[in-house]
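Suppose you are handed a protein chain with no further information: no name, no annotation, nothing but its sequence. What can you learn? This example shows the usual starting point.
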Amino acid sequence: MLGIGVIGAGRVAQVAHLPSFAAAEGARLVALADLRPGLGAEVAARFAVPALYNSHHDLLADRNVDAVVVVTQRSQTAAIVADALRAGKHVLSEKPMAQSVAEGRSLVDLAADGDRRYAIGYMKRHDPGVAAAHALLREWIAEGRYGALLTLRATMDAAEDPVAAEIMTAEPRTDLGFAPTVPATVSPAASAGYERFLNVFSHTTNLVRHLLGLPLDLVASQVNGVGSAAILARAGETPVVFSLYDRQVGGWNERIDVLFEAATLRLELPPNFSRGMAARVTAEASGRAWELPASGWAFTRQARSFVEDVDLGREPLASGRDALDDLRFAEEVWRPQAGLGGCRY
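A reasonable first move is to predict its three-dimensional structure. Written in structure tokens, the prediction is:
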């Protein structure tokens, strides 16, 4: 039985990770750590977590903890993950894994040196609808029955994700004072937008890479101070267009359209915290349209997969090593920006 410790008792831990690991076969929740003692106590009681700590160091010293889920503020994530890997724990970390390629690579090296499984929380890869779309897309590409793959269009324009009620306390949100290593090529004026891009839109770049099985090469980009971006890229010979907005105007519009010469495939993602909802996948070819059946929740499947990865010594579907490419691409998108709203051709 894999002993799971969760570092961070906030919204995402409560809504997604704690219930998912509580239900995961082969795992048990054994410890929780949070800097807010009142919040930690209430959350530990709700999820029947037996050990509560105010320090992640104390949690990492608990011999019942085999693996940790790190769900902390983004600026603190990389340093806490490094501590966990040095302590010999397997890690599932919320994304982004770090703020730069250099910082991320150091974590990947730590995991490799200790032979630890290191997964990143790109849970959309585990969505059953995404799995169905991935299989069909690979089949169409391999067989060539619908002609050449022309382009892929990815859109993300979503408002705040509605979630079930979580525990809140009046305690101030604090951190440990770790300073993230934002790349020197990102100007101070653009750093907030860059960090927002990593937190929100790296989900999209990661999912596109997963579907196509290829890295992304930047062709042109235009960004703004809140992290929104219009990007033209290539995955091999395939043009990829990203329309990534952070308007927060209501509704959830996250989709990927894949266009072949004689067929189309559309993937529509549900709000992240809509428990039990899977992506909707529709296909159109040879004069007919159909929907691929899919059910289940990405977070539940991610937790189950992580437990299996540790048990089998298997590389995670969304590994730290793979996620380095999202950091690389983000740095490429933002590197040309001397200020805000810059553009590169």
